[in-house]
Amino acid sequence: MQQVAAKVGFSETVFAAPSEDGYSVRYFAPNAEISFCGHATIALGAALAKAGVTKPVDLKLNDGSAVVQGSADMDGLRATLWSAPTRHEPTQPELLDRALRLFGIESTDLDDRYPPAIIEAGARHLLLCLQDRSQLAKMNYDMELGAVLMREWHLATVSLVQQETDRRFHSRNAFAAGGVYEDPATGAAAAALVAYLAECGHPTSEIEVHQGYDMGTPCVLYARAPARVGGRAEVCGAVRTME
Q: CB count, 10 Å around CB of 240?
């Protein structure tokens, strides 16, 4: 599976095997196995729908579970996932300091409404919320140093986001640990983000995450916060196929 993922070259590739209760799934980036990947799960849901399976499907992860449901109609293929349970914790000062230096960010550049945090919905992400969209657009970092940092702290990505409106967020996800400079869409991070925002008192439980625009691969993910603390977040999106 690792060899196939490296050959495919996408940020993540999902491998699914039928089981008694649904599917057992594993996710591989070109350089590493990932515990959970949202946009690959959306792709799986769409592929199942294309094959005629449009009911919710239980997914068994290496550690935990998720659910996906695809749909197919005249407008194309779509899917919705319900993530692994969500959680967050404060960022350790050492990790924050190293991450800020890695990306050339000052603490004054951060949006103090949403403190830096480790956010999870099946995978661990360091969340840094920026005040300025232009600073997000110029994201730059040393990939080798980024990979070391992410592996040391067991991070799937470092997620840089900026709030445009209560509903719309822009995001870039550095993914050096997986052998990819940047992830064009990160459903697991979107699920973790919407859950974290809700616990910070964000005024709406539904957001749009616009990602990939600065790398020429525009993607939009729609996320809804869990109904309860620690519950499953919902993420949906449309897909396009490559023949």
A: 8
Instruction: Give the tens place of pLDDT for each residue, 42-75.
Output: 999 999 999 999 999 999 999 899 999 999 988 8
Instruction: Report domain extents, the chain.
Output: 2-82, 87-239
- The Cα–Cα gap between 173 and 181 comes to 9
2-82 and 87-239 in the same fold = yes
Instruction: Say if domain 2-82 classifies as CATH 3.10.310.10.
Output: yes
pLDDT tens sequence across 97-123: 999 999 999 999 999 999 999 999 999
Q: What pTM was computed for the model?
A: 0.96
The C-alpha atoms of residue 156 and residue 207 are separated, in whole angstroms, by 22
Question: Which of 124, 126, 141, 131 minimizes the C-alpha distance to 110?
Answer: 131
Please identify which residue in the block is written with the tokens 């592929």.
47
Strand, coil or helix: 126: strand
Annotation: CATH topology of 87-239:
Diaminopimelate Epimerase; Chain A, domain 1 (3.10.310)
Checking if the pLDDT of 20 tops 80, the result is: yes
The DSSP secondary-structure symbol of 92 reads P
Altogether, the residues listed in the chain come to a count of: 243
- From residue 75, give the alpha-carbon distance in Å to each of 78, 188, 197, 221: 9, 25, 31, 17
What is the phi-psi region of residue 64: left when phi exceeds 0, alpha when psi lies from -120 to 50, beta otherwise? left
